[in-house]
Write the structure tokens for this entry.
Amino acid sequence: MNTLKNKVALVTGASRGIGAAVAKQLAGQGARVIVNYAGSQQEAEETVKAIQNAGGEAIALRADVSKAEEVEAMFDAAIAQYGKIDVLVNNAGIMITKLLKDTTDEDFTRQFDINVRGTFNTLREAATKLADGGSIINFSSTTTRVMMPTYSTYVATKGAVEQLTRVFAKEIGHRGINVNAVLPGPTNTELFTKGKPQEVIDRLASLSAFNRLGEPQDIATVVAFLASDDAKWISGQTIGLNGAMA
């Protein structure tokens, strides 16, 4: 399938996990891909190599999305390399889970800087630098639809991303750009499983209709569809990717 042929896609936080799966899926459908990373250079280069070995085209660019000047430089470097950016996938994010009473000022600031400011920074660049007719897919979380203790600050950041998505879809739609958010449920990645006892993982897996965790590929397939021209009439939506968990 070459539904993304001749398109250029920028995926933030694409060195591993869901981001890497998305980058590979977009490349597999014909897109040239920018693999963004903040600290995991080796893993980003491995993602690029995997894409290239499969016959695709990709480069890795470092940028901390919470820093506006680095995001601006990343967009400019990507456009210098490929001439344009058609697809923006805002996947970069962190998850700090603590009871609200135990959440420090530093925890709060770090989550909002990366999860919200990072999305804001890339959307602001996309407002003038994404190609007409492009697509934006932001990452929220199914945790915005459930009430899970210890997730309060994380959910607050993802709720903000959903609102940015809805409003920006109206602001940029005149250029033919659609903007959506995807809300993965529990997914089999290091970000999700790290530090969790197996019984907790099993319990969360049982909440889906299929009695399993999601896999990164489950998410990547839907993102690739939303990045394609077939999904143009979908915009301003928050789409749960959670196997009927919520």
